[in-house]
Write a structure and sequence with these properties.
alpha/beta, Nucleotidyltransferase, domain 5, 2 domains, five-stranded mixed β-sheet, 9 helices
Amino acid sequence: MTPPPSAPYHYEARAWKTGVTRVAGIDEAGRGPLAGPVVAAAVIIGADRRIRGLADSKLLTAEQREALFSVISERAVAVGVGIVDHLTIDRINILQATRLAMADALARLTVVPDLVITDFVALSGLACPQRNLVDGDARCASVAAASIIAKVTRDRLMVEADSAFPEYGFARHKGYATPEHLAALDRWGPCPLHRRTFAGVWRQGELFVLEKDD
């Protein structure tokens, strides 16, 4: 299998040359699914401890992501993870929940960043400059690292959810609106982990509730 193109260190290298050494890449996983949390990660990689093979998590196999998750966790200067649950997503909307998860991920870093680079999500209230890149997880190694940490963390949570609600197949589709998932919603209605404000859940869930109430 041909590996995906590695995300470069162009943006980090420019910062390092100017003395900005603590560059935090940040990304999320789970904005689109119908169930479960949104997870964000922030990763700071040192100039002398670059990690090879970092790429957009969506382009990697599960095995590649798991292997890189271990390497990132071991070699990165700092890693922070923020998790916002489905109830909060329903209350404040997915974009605001994503920003909240990202802010939490940054707060959990053990090193304060000098620069934040995101996958095109602007954050407010930062004490340092930020750069918001289109396709940041493909163009910036630190953001790619964050995408891997976020994706693996969320996938593990959805595998755990599968144990509690096996009829939905969360371990396979991770909460995304696959035909299998929608068929399960048609049959069983939403479970406690579903996002009630999402259209796929609302359509399926409202039909289910009406039938049960009748």
